[in-house]
Amino acid sequence: MSARDFEILYKETRLNLEPSTSSSIVQIRVGSHNQSSFSRSTTASARAINAADDEKAYRIRNLATASSVYYRKHHVSPRGFHWRVLENDTVLSIRAADVCKPQHNDTDAPLVLNLRFPSPIRTSCIGFSDPEAHDALCVHVVDQSNQLHTITLRPDHFRKRLATDGGLGDLCKSYSPPGFGFKQPHRLVVVNHDQLIVTMHDGGILRFDRTSRSNANGNPWKETIYNVAGWGQSLQKLVPFKRDPTVRYGNTNMELTAATSTAITNAGIDDAAFLFTICLDHRMRVWDVRTGQIMYTGDILNAKRDPQDIARWTIDPSQTNLIRILDNGPGQCLVVTYSPIGSGEFKFWKVKANAQGSIHVADCFPEQKLVPASPSSLDIWTLADFAVAQQAEGPELWTLWKNNITYRVQKLQVHPKSASGPFDDGWKMVNIESSAASAQTSGPCDPVDSSEKWLELIFFPGRFSKSTLETALVMYEKGLGTYKEGNSRSNKSIAESICSILGSTTTLDRSSVGGLDYEQFRNTSETQWTRFWRLLLELDKQRGEALSLVLDPVDGMIWVACADLLSAIRQCSDLDRIYHNIETPSQKDQDVAALVSAGLNFVDVFSDSMLELTRAALRPELFEESSLSDAERMQQFYDKAGFWRQVTEEDVAQVVETLGQNFQMVTPRLYEDLFELITAAGDRNSQELRAPFTGFGRKLVIRTVQETIELHWKILFSQLILLVHMEDEIEDEKSALHARFDVGLVYRKLVDALKRLEHLRWMVKTELTIPVPKADHSGSASPVANRGKEETYAITALEGLIGHLLGLPESHGEPLLSSITDVVLDICAPTSSNELDNGIMQCWLLKQGRPDLAKELNPFAQQDPFSTYIQGRVFLALNEHNTAAQCFKKASVGLSTERTTVQRHSAGLLDDTEWKLLYSGLPNYYAHIVNLFERQKAYSYVVEFSKIALQFIQDNQEDDNTSSQRAKHNDVKTEMLSRLFTASTAISQFDVAHSTLLAMVDDEVLQKSYLRKLVEKMCEAGQNTELVNLPFSGLQTMVDEILVEKCRQVRDVLSGAPYHQILYAWRISHNDYRGGAAVLLDRLQKLRQMGEGDKVGVSGEDALDTQVTRQYLLLINALSCVQAKGEAYILEDILSDEEEEDQDVKPNGKGGGDNLEDHLDDLLERLDTAEDPAQQHQQQQQQPSKKKTAGRTTRASAAAASSTESQHEEDRVLAEKLRQFSTASESFSGEPRRRLLTLADIRKQYQQELDRIVAIQNNQFGFTDGFDGDDGDVLMS
């Protein structure tokens, strides 16, 4: 019998058990008797568990030897707990396994508790209880040292690390039962929180009753032993020749009366407890737990057998799953037993009991036999476990079959009142995905490297665990002979390590013709990746070994607990059911099944390269707007794909055979039926969530969505190709498809459905790391404490974006295995209630700091203004400023139009301030854009958009009618001018900064501040010529003052910005020669203070050419350019240390260079002499006689006379100014004293500087004899 003979109605979804973060694993060491337990929850230990150097260590550390799920009865948050035994039976790992939260405000329980025992535990002696009085989970374990451990775990232990940091303390108790001293425990059964039962190797049972308080010996339990026979028979078994037959199991000889499988029930009677046991002698015994009496004994098949034929009917002691009990009401229950003898057989028992302890057991179907059908007759299958659920039609039987590490799950609906028989409904199969995915064959025309394809396949979310990848890589490296012990890859990710090691096996050599052999390189690389992939698959198969089958009694969910996986059994959707039963469809689905089959078979012959080409042709249809008609679009797709090249006559004939001549079976109604299969049932848009999914439940939904997307894409993609083929295949217009129905409408629906699937496919395969949420103010902490480095965990984009919206609706009344399918189908449906708002998704990704992923969503973006704006934000984050600017401009009109109501949904990307700038006019919108570019320091675009904003502000100001509007626009204008100035200054667009500065007429303080900034920036940037050439209308005085201030602050005039030279150039350009000379004089003084005048002949050049002498020449030249009479002078501040010294410069022998008063007296004396003829004649006679030259003419004499008059006129003007200065100086007596230097004084100083240099060159140095007179200076050589 092959598997296809069974109708497939269910599917399996496998979940990885790897925690989201390494610190989610909490290590708790359980002490032995009289020892305390403590917690060790370090991240390093968690990583050490997952690391494995070889396959054996991998199995020990990651693959469980026993696993199941326990559901509490009295408390619901959390209600389900998944447990498994690891590391040579020394670790019991427990985690919460709830799919839904009972309430919205319930906190997830993401922690995994690893209980480490001092001795290996007995996997058959693990039990759990749910105390009714308080919210806790009690764990009962018997280890191989015969110690009974009782551990109480509270919900906070699975939610907060803080709850376990100090250890469990009194919550963990260990006890060494005396009864285990001479009997071996075999099975542990939990009656309730206060009562346990352990079945022994000799067929007896040991009952443990919790003591109200510890007795004198400190024992927490009271023991009571019950035997199958009396004490006399028990003692006879100690005599060797009087022993009954036994079965060897491990190191123990098991009596045939020993129980190998047990179940407990109270049959709906308070204070009652009945223990049903399946013993090795193929009998069922029912114990009254209260009295320890056996109430019933009978064969589990109700068969009569030869008492001497013991060996044939002996059950192996390893069988643990042979009985299940289903309570049916007060005093009644249904017991289902399974006999593993022979081909195996089930038996249903109706049990009635009363409060007095009497019990009646009856065969429900004495004339019927239920022999389960194995999944295949070609292999040897063993029924490993089964479960029973109560449905309206009757009991529902689930079976788990195993063949080595492969397993299958089947279901049988029992109809007790059926006329044809209770078991005639037939077995239904669960589809177990056994075929592994594979990467497409690489070719020379592939757009991406083959490594990228393999990495995408290997690191598909939820496919492999990290420990599996690490172990496979180590095994592969050992196979190459390059593995080194202790080689750490801590600095590399696992993906980088895989690429590095596999890449080292391939080299790019030259071909026989001398060129680089890329084909050989590609083939070799493909071979190595294939080998590593096969190694991964073989290692991963071990994780899927089934260990138990579990039924959720409340939600009706079926789970298969595997070695390193947890598989959820869910109901097939209608499309799933048609696909998996495509060869034997039901009567109502035959036409749709034929259409689906025709499409799949038609595409199945395509090569990998043809599929890639077809997908490339489909991409524009999915993501680009087209102005073509539907017929033209289909023809264009047909031409671009070119799949007709690989379609043979046999392929066409097969389609015709399936769908009829001219595809007569294809009708619009047929396509409507097909689209109904991918549409969620009911209106979920109006349904609110009753039970949101937990983190574990979201993982289940995401994994199911991944599987559903691939199936729907496969079917719809083939239907699109088949539709185009059928439309082009029929040449007769009357028989063509478009003559019968609107083919274009079907084409558009298929394209829309594929676009959503492609969108979802990207979301479920894209992972990103986000920070672990911190503890909130209520103290319900996240699983991870913040210890230094912020911890992150990986999450798919779909879970991150819409995970909080997923849950069961209010109308949930169906079993969870069908509700999960409905939720997933609604997500994948084209008309889903879960809208995939691409803009919000990109906002969320930008908020998470992943603009690279947000860019990948651009093909799915809508064309509305907000989506366009978000695309601009994406490009801006990627520093693609030009594209971002185009998007912002495109969205400007839509986002600036004022609206009364705005839906502010941006996943936290935009704050309230930014939202207020949108939908409030173009100036505010562009102000917002300017702010965005300024954050990125894209100053050229800040300049561009600031100008645009200012332009619209100016336009709007003309229309402003109210003072408030004008005030708002003025504020925006000021801000834009400020940003424009800052940006233009940053990118040295000083002309723009200058014009912006002139526009700041409304804020003089800001204008002055920015003027200083502009001047300083231009000076530091060396833009001296540009600074001088800028007009600075109305600001010239402030520019001069700023430069003067900077000159005063300068001490070293030879380094840094040349402020003196800039100020000199500024004043000269504005015809202020005397002001320019004053600047030069200040620079001259600072050069002399720096000692530049003493650096004579340093570079071997002209000794008279120094910094000081050159400055004198510039100063003389500047004063010489003064055109106005009497203006060729400058004022020099007298330094405090110079006021008491004689000055070197004395122009007229009377110290005229000292101060203004001396100059004034000297000039007045000269004027008086010029005006008195007698005195003038006397002076002329006193002058030495001069020889008249032959060249002297009358014209020369006249010129000399004119020059004398001009000099006298200048002296008069200068004297008048000196009087004014002298009068003004009286009012500033506290200011530093100044002296006046004329052009003649400067020339005299220059000559003296030259003489000083010459003296130094001649080794003549000046010394003083201590007297104050002029004669005190002595030249020494």
From TrEMBL:
<keyword id="KW-0539">Nucleus</keyword>
<dbReference type="InterPro" id="IPR021717">
    <property type="entry name" value="Nucleoporin_Nup160"/>
</dbReference>
<feature type="domain" description="Nucleoporin Nup120/160 beta-propeller">
    <location>
        <begin position="79"/>
        <end position="576"/>
    </location>
</feature>
<dbReference type="InterPro" id="IPR056548">
    <property type="entry name" value="HEAT_Nup120"/>
</dbReference>
<feature type="compositionally biased region" description="Low complexity">
    <location>
        <begin position="1191"/>
        <end position="1204"/>
    </location>
</feature>
<feature type="region of interest" description="Disordered">
    <location>
        <begin position="1138"/>
        <end position="1158"/>
    </location>
</feature>
<keyword id="KW-0813">Transport</keyword>
<dbReference type="InterPro" id="IPR011047">
    <property type="entry name" value="Quinoprotein_ADH-like_sf"/>
</dbReference>
<dbReference type="Pfam" id="PF21486">
    <property type="entry name" value="NUP120_helical"/>
</dbReference>
<dbReference type="InterPro" id="IPR059141">
    <property type="entry name" value="Beta-prop_Nup120_160"/>
</dbReference>
<protein>
    <submittedName>
        <fullName>Nucleoporin Nup120/160-domain-containing protein</fullName>
    </submittedName>
</protein>
<dbReference type="Pfam" id="PF23300">
    <property type="entry name" value="HEAT_Nup120"/>
</dbReference>
<feature type="domain" description="Nucleoporin nup120-like HEAT repeat">
    <location>
        <begin position="841"/>
        <end position="1020"/>
    </location>
</feature>
<dbReference type="GO" id="GO:0005643">
    <property type="term" value="C:nuclear pore"/>
</dbReference>
<feature type="region of interest" description="Disordered">
    <location>
        <begin position="1171"/>
        <end position="1213"/>
    </location>
</feature>
<dbReference type="GO" id="GO:0017056">
    <property type="term" value="F:structural constituent of nuclear pore"/>
</dbReference>
<feature type="domain" description="Nucleoporin Nup120 helical">
    <location>
        <begin position="618"/>
        <end position="750"/>
    </location>
</feature>
<dbReference type="Pfam" id="PF11715">
    <property type="entry name" value="Beta-prop_Nup120_160"/>
</dbReference>
<dbReference type="InterPro" id="IPR048884">
    <property type="entry name" value="Nup120_helical"/>
</dbReference>
